[in-house]
Design brief:
alpha/beta; about 40% helix; TIM Barrel; 8-stranded parallel barrel; binds zinc ion
Length: about 280
């Protein structure tokens, strides 16, 4: 195993989706053996499982649960759809509480053809509706802005400025932002907006990967750190200057990587992590 001393990985968290072919229990044992410190659990990895016992197994293995991915998808066109989304998000909050995840990442949603401003209003109302329930259960909610190429059907929140505006408008300690370098690296306002999130106490999560050229698939061709053009270390520096000292969460959707031997891939992730962070 090419891994360095364990303390090098004290801020390394991996999203289960990154090693999608593995079951949750495989991910737990491989991550632990590699010296990884944190895990962000995607809901598909929990399917058919009791979240409470899954959470216990994760903690007993020595991994910290960083967050649950993901909630959101609020802005349905009709009120029935929006109510359904709220109910689903309340279930996700229960799941996070059972699992022992302190944070839920929100992919906020968008509806093709619905004006983005209208979607944003509905997103705000959706988050406001679930916030008290989350607060009672000590679960924080992170608004994750997505790259504008997903503004049609995944998220009407596309810049950190928009996420900051919304978090500040909601004005509660429960709601902050998730900074994902894949979505935000291109934005000339990024440094200033990270500083602003930091001042407001809203820097809740930091996701890393890289942007490949050419990108062959808009969703599932993310790169391993070092394979692309994102200045990850600079952005991490801005996060730290903003007061963030949480995990570097490796979140990579990649058809190429999922087709690869996952144990070798995990070794590559650990190596790339040391070079990029
Ligand atoms: Zn992310």
């Amino acid at each position: 195993m090419g891994a360095g001393p364990i303390w090098d990985y004290s801020k390394l968290c991996i999203h289960t989706i990154t090693t999608k072919p593995w079951s949750l229990d495989e991910a737990i044992s491989h991550y632990t053996r590699a010296g990884v410190s944190g895990i962000t659990v995607w809901r598909n990895a929990l399917e058919g499982m009791d979240p409470q016992s899954a959470g216990r197994r994760i903690r007993e293995a020595g991994l910290e649960i960083v967050s649950l991915c993901r909630g959101g998808f609020f802005p349905a066109a009709d009120s029935e759809g929006r109510q359904k989304a709220i109910e689903e998000n309340l279930r996700i909050i229960d799941e996070a509480a059972s699992l022992g995840a302190p944070l839920i990442v929100l992919v906020c949603g968008a509806v093709p053809g619905q004006p983005l401003n209208e979607s944003r209003k509905k997103i705000r109302d959706g988050i406001a509706a679930i916030q008290p329930y989350a607060e009672e259960r000590d679960i924080r909610l992170a608004i994750e802005p997505l790259h504008p190429m997903y503004a049609d059907d995944r998220s009407a929140i596309n810049t950190l400025k928009q996420a900051n505006d919304m978090a500040e408008d909601l004005n509660t300690e429960t709601v902050g932002v998730a900074v994902d370098v894949y979505h935000l690296w291109w934005d000339q306002e990024l440094e200033a907006e990270i500083r602003r999130s930091g001042r407001a106490g809203n820097l809740f999560a930091f996701h890393i990967c890289d942007w490949r050229t050419p990108t062959e698939d808009l969703l599932n061709d993310r790169g391993l750190m070092g394979e692309g053009c994102i200045p990850i270390r600079n952005i991490r520096g801005w996060m730290e200057e903003g007061g963030f000292d949480g995990f570097n969460e490796v979140e990579i959707f990649s058809n190429r990587r999922w087709a690869q031997d996952q144990e070798k891939y995990l070794e590559e992730i650990c190596r790339a992590y040391l070079q990029a962070s």
